[in-house]
Amino acid sequence: MSNQVGGPADHIDQTYTVNLSSEDRDGVWRLRVRDADAGDVGYINNWGLTLDVPGQALCTNTNNTDVPIPDMNTAASTLLFSGCVGKASATSTVEVHIVHTFRGDLVVVLFARTAPRTHPYPPIPQ
Questions:
Q1: Which among 44, 96, 102, 118 has a CA at the least distance from the CA of 75?
Q2: b vs e for 91-111, b when ≥16 Cβ sit within 10 Å of the residue's Cβ?
Q3: CB neighbours of 48 closer than 8 A, spacing ≥ 6?
Q4: Residue 52: which residues within 8 A CB-CB, separation 6 or more?
Q5: pLDDT tens for residues 19-69?
Q6: Element (H, E) at 109
Q7: Secondary structure class of 116 (helix, strand, coil)
Q8: pLDDT band at 2 (very low <50, low <70, confident <90, very high)
């Protein structure tokens, strides 16, 4: 979703639209953040995922647990969806709040768990 963009600016506070229409809504979803350059640290402050499908119940979940992002290392945070029938939509959203002193260091990827593979999702071009 974010690949070392933003240069020396601090933090990532953004909502991404992602096409998840090939994925079942139920299951474990994972946000992975990699610090790809030395010298700065931070943490995943919180993130949320909304898997909307027109005509069906809205499925949304948020993880508010701080997860440290070590320098030159990877952090991950998960969300569990249960009882959300059907596929996600092409206009699902991921809201990400990451505290970091140099957001240009960060690579942020959303993973959907589908047996037996894990797929990364980039944002839909705006």
A1: 44
A2: bbbbebbbbbebbbbbbbbbb
A3: 60, 61, 62, 63, 79, 94, 95
A4: 58, 59, 88, 89, 91, 92, 93
A5: 888 888 999 999 999 998 898 889 999 999 999 877 787 899 999 999 999
A6: strand 106-114
A7: coil
A8: low
